[in-house]
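Blackboard transcription, Thursday session:
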Amino acid sequence: QKEVEQNSGPLSVPEGAIASLNCTYSDRGSQSFFWYRQYSGKSPELIMFIYSNGDKEDGRFTAQLNKASQYVSLLIRDSQPSDSATYLCAVSSSGYSTLTFGKGTMLLVSP
Amino acid sequence: DAGVIQSPRHEVTEMGQEVTLRCKPISGHDYLFWYRQTMMRGLELLIYFNNNVPIDDSGMPEDRFSAKMPNASFSTLKIQPSEPRDSAVYFCASSFWGNTNEKLFFGSGTQLSVL
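(Written on the board underneath:)
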């Protein structure tokens, strides 16, 4: 049974701070890692993906992957109230396989 | 493109009734997924299709659930008979082979309430 674990939160940060969201996964064969953002009452949307160990930056977002520790994280710099949402970590194995989602971490950014 | 289109947006029904959820994927996408989301279990994959053929339905909770994809532009998820524990948000998503980031495009979802 492939599992993806996230702290449900809420994670509360003030505007302008760095928000750090974490995710662990059970399947060592996992090769692709994704972060989806879901606003309340809306559908998930992809914001970041990472395949290799290390950091990947895209604007204010940085995804970090450590396959040895089976750990993925998402950093959001200069957090804005508009970043308040639930962040879903998703993992897939080699080739084209289906995604396994974590239950998500709720992020609240206060003005 | 209009994106993935789901209908209805909201469905309220009574226990024992048949419920049919509909999905139109993005044109050109050859993968279609049905997910269910609840607070307790998160986002769960129910079934997915490739080129209109069901590939994996191991996530379908029981025989009361069935899904079809008669053509590349339409899919249905049917629950018969419905039960209160089926209450959830049901998402349809599509994607295409060769999309190396395996990006799923989600529809707006159907909020199902079974009374």
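Lecturer's comment: The two ends of chain A are 40 Å apart (CA to CA).
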